[in-house]
Amino acid sequence: MSSLTKPKRSRLLPEDRRMQLLDCAKNIILRQGFSSLTMEAVTKEANVSNPLVYKYFDTRLSLLQELTEREIIRYYTEVLEELDVDQGFQHLLHISVRTNFDEVANGNILSILRSQPDIEKGIDKAKLRKKIDVAPILVQRTMDAFQISRQQAVRIVAFGAGVSQRAAMHWQQYGGERNKMINDVIAFINGGIDALISETSDKAS
Q: Against a cut of 0.85, is the pTM above it?
């Protein structure tokens, strides 16, 4: 073979190729910014032909929506693995609050993608929830930790999620010491749990 002959491009299985193209899109966004992502940029990054990219993704938007779904599933799969380790309620609470802060962290691929309204509209959230639903674990662990009813646990989980999400958005907008704010949110939620349980006990007595 001549030394000038170009090496043949390796052929990937369809799913591997799809993942490669999504990885290329992710790298472009993180390296160059969201507006730099074009189908042509993905073509160049992946070293493939333009028609091949369009074979997998009809439009830039469809590529971004699939990338967003993949990254959400990846992230929450890791979170679910952490939640599966029984290290007590406070460990569980810390993971839950930290998750909200991680999602809005500056430069995080999820925060970049989910800040785009068009991308969010195209995601099948019902389908996604079935794969990443952490709520049942949180509710059950809360019931076990405080010996309370499911209804009470659902309220605690809902209130706690609302507080931590708002705090995470505040942190994203105004900054501050991340770990201190996480600990402040945890203390606030613990105080709310104590108050809620005490109120319920008083009514029962």
A: no
